[in-house]
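Incident log, support desk, overnight shift.

02:14 A customer reports that sequence design results differ from what the structure should imply. Their input is reproduced verbatim below. On-call engineer (initials T.W.) acknowledged and began investigating.
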């Protein structure tokens, strides 16, 4: 499936014209009701309009329509984030755990997973994941002399 030209929708969204973007997308979706790109974009618009339940439904529909890998990644992140925001932490974690298996070492997915862990009062796991991400990032050159020591503490930070 080819990604549709969403320039108009993104322009409207970037200028805060969510109702207009929603209307235009609705018209397109009447013609292509099984297009995961349109479903994802509509979900994003609904997120901006604080209509999380409707957005979640559209993200599920997009997943049902077998989106290409790059789009699937974005859908999974958005779905899990909305579920977390609605307090459906277990579901959020489940989707992110699936995403982490499908997209290993993906920093965005890991960050949203850490948020879900934190919200689920699993703060130790959230902290450990963030700590590991920071230590694994080569851009933080100032950490180079300390990486071995910091890695040790990432496994033993609860030790007394």
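02:41 Re-run completed on a clean worker. Output:
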């Amino acid at each position: 499936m080819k990604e549709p030209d969403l320039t108009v929708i993104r322009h409207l969204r970037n200028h805060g014209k969510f109702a207009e973007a929603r209307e235009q997308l609705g018209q397109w979706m009447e013609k292509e009701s099984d297009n995961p790109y349109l479903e994802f974009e509509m979900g994003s618009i609904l997120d901006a309009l604080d209509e999380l339940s409707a957005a979640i439904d559209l993200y599920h529909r997009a997943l049902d329509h077998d989106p290409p890998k790059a789009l699937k990644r974005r859908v999974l992140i958005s779905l899990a984030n909305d579920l977390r925001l609605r307090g459906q932490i277990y579901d959020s974690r489940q989707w992110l755990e699936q995403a982490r298996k499908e997209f290993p070492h993906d920093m965005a997915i890991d960050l949203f997973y850490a948020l879900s862990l934190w919200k689920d009062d699993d703060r130790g796991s959230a902290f450990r994941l963030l700590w590991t991400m920071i230590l694994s990032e080569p851009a933080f050159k100032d950490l180079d002399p300390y990486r071995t020591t910091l890695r040790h503490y990432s496994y033993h930070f609860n030790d007394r």
